[in-house]
Structures are given as structure tokens and as C-alpha cells.
Specification:
It is built from 25 helices and 17 strands. It is an alpha+beta fold and about 625 residues long. α2 packs parallel to α5 and α19 crosses α20. β8 and β9 form a beta hairpin.
Length: about 625
């Protein structure tokens, strides 16, 4: 049964994750910083909404969408602006901007404002003091919002009794019964006509959006492409030896265990006990002091850390000897644990070592010069084939790639490892604008350009006819499955037996399953990033004996879920976890208070939306305006 659930959600899990990210953005956007980056599309400055005495412009909304899209792309690199808008991203950002403007207007009316010094401090904290890095009015708006909402979040305390009950929930186990009604089992038996498919495609265009695809032309080469790098001369080797003479001088380093005593008497007492056979650690511990192990250290290093007198005493002692010495901090008792000596090395002894280092540096410098000359050729107007021919490199083209490095419409195939470091740049550059880059530091270099860009857009119906037919069948079948699910729910609530109800449906369905899971197991699955079957999630949000229906992701079916039993976890009232739960619940309730206050202020201030302007911007960002 669990396998079936995982299969049924697999095809649309990407969409679900993206939508979840959008919801997170909606909650976090108040605290986010909208930068002055260029928008995804060239928006005008027309008014999108009036909020009290404030306005939300098309430019505000465009910039907000651009910033939010970049954040979501950190989790879903292939998401295009078209897909972002189609999933409701524009509406979420607009609602947040309206809330921010309402909070700012409310603050002005109640003398809650952000002064210039506070704005400067916030800009400095964000490292955004460059001109126009973040508009000052944007910072002021967000500061006022923070001042209004923050008090609602703090000081919320959850009663200990509720925290104990909640702790029991964290360890509970639940069992239930699940009926699965796949959409395809309820799909129309008669194939749809062309007109029906065309109408369905037109009304569901956003479901068939393709990600942006790019073809990259490239060639790789290594450091050996640079020929005739001169070998280091004897004079160069001797010069480097003189420059690094201290590195080759005689060296003595020591590892020690030390205790710092406050008085000479205490130091002598420790010294006597150690010489009598007690360990330095034990002697120090008995006197409330701690022994520290250091090194290996050179004499100058030890002198800097303690005092010259301490260093002199330590470096005059033999291995295993204990010495005492005075410093500004107190009296040191030191045991020499190890002595590491290295004789001086002559030029003849290190000549090969220095020659190898110089040869590596020369080749690195030659490669850098080589790459610089390639860049100069590109800047001078040479195209990639011309430069590749001069270098004797064989160019190759990738298949169409998506921004995450996957080969489009080729599951399991990915981009060459050499291309991964330049993929992000390749998806932000213009066509036929060659570049050179380091693919693997010091080992592999790459020259490349983009030869083809296929923007994100709905796929033509004739190219995805099979997908459209499947989507149509799922859509029609899901509606029928929902109706049947509601009938099953009603029958179960009347006390009828589930097996008899399913048999009465008269279709070949997956067997009724009894499922069970503990909440710790549920949390473990979530933390491991494993998809949790929707009925299992629903099971932990139901009352005992209740019956609920739930749609499967992607309209692939409907579930009827019955919660049969709840076994609370055993939690002692003195368990420290209760205090943790109390703090967590207090913080969560504070967040809810803040959200309620935000909504109340927005409702109090009032907002009027320019629906025509919103539609125009939505069409522009999703490409519909250009198509028309």
C-alpha cells in the first residue's frame, strides 16, 4: 500500500515542493530584503493597489517577484517565471506587499516610524550601504512592520498542562483504514474528441509549461595545452632559497604540558609532587587548576604565548623533565613531553624541492596568461569556433539541458561533470557570447558558449498529445472519483462495513488497507526527506473515528481515510521534553498572534486592487502579452 502511495505522488512531487516553497515565502517575505535588481520583465510604474495612503506599483511587484523567484530557484533551479506565476507566486508576493504597505500606513497614523539613523543602522547591518543597493523606503517599510508585529510574537507562554498533552502526541501511534479510488478507474470509457482535447488544453495551459532549455557548445583542455614552459634556472632556485632561508634553517620544537599556578609556593608544591611520582594533571586538579597540552611549539611561539623566561626554561630542559618559571600571569610548571629537532638544510639538499615548486608556479602563471589571451580574443570579436580552431580543440554540443543540469526529456541523463561549474553562468548569458572558465581548479579548463535558448513556455498541443489525453482522463476521472469518495464517506459514517461498500462500487480497485504509524516514525521519514503518503499525513490530523476524503497529488485519485485508533505516548510529567515543548508551542502561538495582527491591520487600513493592471503584469510575466 505504501508503495502505491509513493508511486501515485511521484509524478507531481516537484510541483508540490515548489508550491510548499511558495507558501514558506509567503510567511517569510515580511522579513526578506527586496533588492534593487532588475525585474524579470520590464514592468511599468503604474499603480497595482492602493493601501490607505500608500501605493503598490507594478515596479514594486515586479521586483518582489524577481527576488522571490531567485530564492525559490535555490531549491528548484528549473522553475521559470512562467511557472512561478502559474503556481500563484505573483499573488503571494502581491498580498505580502499589500500587508507591508498597510503596516507602514498604520504606523504613520500611530506615530510609529523608522528614523534615518535606524535605517542607516539596518543598511549597515545588511552590508548594503552602496547607493541604491536596497531602497531606503523599502527598509523603512520593513522596519515599521517589524516594530508593529514583533511585540505580538514575544511573551507568549503555553500552559504546562497543554505542553504535557502535546508531548504525548509526539509519541503517539495511530492506525486507520484507507480506500484508494484511482482517477483512471473512473475515467470516461469513450475517447475524447479533438474539440474536447483542444478546449481542455486551452483551459489547462499552465499544466503543460516546459522549463527553459539551452544547448551549450564547449571544449575542454588541461594545463598541458600550454607548451614550452621554461624550466627553473639555478639562479632562480638560489634566489628562492635565500628568500625562504628561515624555512630551511635549523629548527627545534617542543610539545609540553603546563599548569599556571597563582603563587610560587603552589608551583613548588606541584613540582615536588610530580617529581615524587604523581602526574601533573592529577596534582593540578587537586588544587583546582587545569593542565593544558600545547605544541609542538618553537621557542619564539612559546615565548609569545607565555614569557621569555618560561621559553628559556623549557628549551633548556630535556624530554620528560619538569621545570618552573615565572611570568606576568603567575608561575608556570611545565613538563617537556617531546622534542622535535630538525637540522639546517643546504641549497643542495633542497634544490629539487624548490625546482618542483618553481616549475609548478611557472606553469600556473603560463596557464593564467594563456587563459587571459583567450579572453582577449573573445573580447576582440573572435567567436568560439575560431578560437577553438587556433587552439586545436574539438567542439561538441550538449543535448538540450535544463537549469539543474538534466538532459531534457531524458530521465536519468545528466550534464558532463566538466559543465557543472559553468551551468549557472550558461543559463544567464546571451547566445553566442563565448567565455573561458576553470572547470576543475588547476586541472581542467573550458571554452564555451550557448548556441540555442528555448524559453520556458507551454508546449504546443500537437507535440504532447499523449500527455494532454492522459491529463484529460485524470481530470475527468478525478471528478468521478471524488463523487464516489463522498458516497463512501457517507456510507462509512452510517456504520456500513468498508469491504461491502467497496464491493458495491463494481470497479477493479486496490484492496482496502489497514495502515499504522507512530508519530516518531512520521518525523523520521520527514527528516530523511522521504515522501510521506498523503493518507498517512491526514491520519495524524484527524479525530478518532472520523472519516475524511483527500485528493491525491496530480488528480491521480482520491482517498477515503478512517482513523481507527489512537495510542498516546507515555510521557512522565517531569520529563524535560515537556519544557522544550512548552517553549516551542509558545513561539508558535506568538507567530500566530503576529499573523492575526497583520491581517487585522490590513483589514483596518483597507486596500483597493487594480485588477486590470494586475492581469496585465501577470500576462506580461507569463509571456501571454507577447503571444497576443
Amino acid at each position: 500500500m505504501l508503495h502505491f502511495f509513493r508511486t501515485i505522488i511521484k509524478s507531481k512531487v516537484g510541483a508540490i515542493v515548489a508550491i510548499a516553497m511558495l507558501c514558506l515565502l509567503a510567511l517569510a517575505f515580511v522579513a526578506a530584503d527586496v533588492s534593487g535588481n532588475r525585474g524579470v520583465g520590464g514592468a511599468s510604474s503604474g499603480t497595482i493597489a492602493k493601501v490607505g495612503g500608500e501605493s503598490v506599483t507594478a515596479a514594486d511587484l515586479n521586483n518582489g517577484v524577481n527576488e522571490a523567484l531567485q530564492r525559490v530557484r535555490q531549491q528548484d533551479p528549473t522553475l521559470s517565471i512562467t511557472g512561478f506565476v502559474a503556481r500563484g507566486g505573483l499573488d503571494i508576493i502581491l498580498n505580502d506587499l499589500i500587508d507591508l504597505k498597510a503596516l507602514f500606513d498604520f504606523g504613520k497614523d500611530n506615530d510609529i516610524v523608522a528614523g534615518d539613523r535606524l535605517i542607516d543602522s539596518e543598511l549597515q547591518r545588511q552590508g548594503a550601504l552602496q547607493p541604491q543597493a536596497i531602497p531606503r523606503d523599502t527598509v523603512a517599510t520593513r522596519l515599521v512592520a517589524r516594530m508593529l508585529l514583533a511585540p505580538a510574537e514575544y511573551g507568549s507562554v503555553m500552559p504546562a498542562e497543554m505542553a504535557w498533552r502535546y508531548s504525548q502526541l509526539l509519541g503517539e501511534s495511530r492506525t486507520g483504514t484507507v480506500v484508494v479510488l484511482p482517477s483512471l478507474a473512473f475515467a470516461p470509457q469513450q475517447a475524447p474528441g479533438n474539440a474536447q482535447l483542444a478546449a481542455f488544453y486551452k483551459s489547462h495551459t499552465n499544466a503543460f509549461i516546459r522549463p527553459e532549455r539551452r544547448v551549450i557548445r564547449y571544449a575542454t583542455f588541461g594545463p598541458d595545452a600550454v607548451k614550452n614552459v621554461p624550466a627553473p634556472t639555478d639562479a632562480e632556485i638560489a634566489k628562492r632559497y635565500d628568500a625562504d632561508k628561515a624555512q630551511y634553517a635549523a629548527l627545534e620544537r617542543r610539545a609540553i604540558t603546563q599548569v599556571v599556578a597563582p603563587t610560587e609556593a603552589a608551583a613548588k608544591a606541584i613540582d615536588a609532587e610530580v617529581k615524587a611520582g604523581k602526574s601533573l594533571d592529577a596534582s593540578a586538579s587537586e588544587k583546582g587548576l587545569a593542565a593544558a597540552k600545547l605544541g609542538p611549539l618553537g621557542k619564539q611561539e612559546l615565548s609569545a604565548q607565555s614569557a621569555p623566561a618560561v621559553a628559556d626554561a623549557v628549551f633548556a630542559a630535556a624530554k620528560g623533565q619538569v621545570v618552573t618559571a615565572r611570568s606576568p600571569l603567575g608561575w608556570y610548571v611545565v613538563r617537556v613531553e617531546a622534542v622535535d629537532t630538525r637540522p639546517a638544510r643546504s641549497l643542495a639538499e633542497v634544490k629539487t624541492e624548490i625546482a618542483t615548486t618553481l616549475a609548478t608556479e611557472k606553469r600556473r602563471a603560463a596557464v593564467t596568461d594563456y587563459l587571459t589571451k583567450i579572453e582577449e580574443q573573445f573580447e576582440g570579436g573572435s567567436n568560439l569556433p575560431e578560437v577553438a580552431a587556433k587552439l586545436g580543440l574539438q567542439l561538441q554540443d550538449t543535448p538540450p539541458l535544463t537549469a539543474d543540469g538534466a538532459v531534457y526529456q531524458a530521465p536519468g541523463q545528466g550534464v558532463s561533470p566538466a559543465l557543472k561549474p559553468i551551468l549557472k553562468t550558461a543559463f544567464s548569458m546571451e547566445e553566442n557570447q563565448p567565455q573561458v572558465a576553470e572547470a576543475e581548479p588547476g586541472k581542467t579548463f573550458i571554452v564555451y558558449d550557448v548556441t540555442s535558448v528555448s524559453p520556458s513556455a507551454p508546449a504546443p498541443m500537437n507535440e504532447i498529445l499523449g500527455d494532454v489525453k492522459l491529463a484529460y482522463a485524470l481530470d475527468m476521472g478525478a471528478a468521478n472519483a471524488k463523487a464516489e469518495a463522498l458516497k463512501v464517506q457517507a456510507a462509512l459514517r452510517k456504520g456500513e462495513k468498508v469491504d461491502a461498500i467497496v464491493a458495491r462500487i463494481g470497479k477493479k480497485l486496490p484492496p482496502v488497507e489497514r495502515v499504522g504509524m507512530s508519530r516518531p516514525q512520521l518525523v523520521q521519514m520527514q527528516q530523511a526527506g522521504r515522501p510521506v503518503p498523503p493518507p498517512i499525513r491526514l491520519l495524524f490530523a484527524m479525530a478518532k473515528g472520523s472519516v475524511k476524503v483527500q485528493e491525491a497529488p496530480g488528480k491521480r485519485g482520491w482517498f477515503v481515510v478512517v482513523l481507527d485508533t489512537i495510542q498516546p505516548g507515555a510521557v512522565d510529567r517531569k520529563d524535560p521534553a515537556i519544557a522544550d515543548a512548552q517553549r516551542g508551542l509558545g513561539k508558535a502561538s506568538g507567530t500566530e498572534y503576529s499573523e492575526a495582527l497583520r491581517k487585522a491591520i490590513t483589514a483596518n487600513v483597507g486596500a483597493t486592487r487594480n485588477e486590470a493592471a494586475i492581469k496585465a503584469l501577470r500576462d506580461q510575466l507569463s509571456g501571454k502579452a507577447a503571444a497576443e
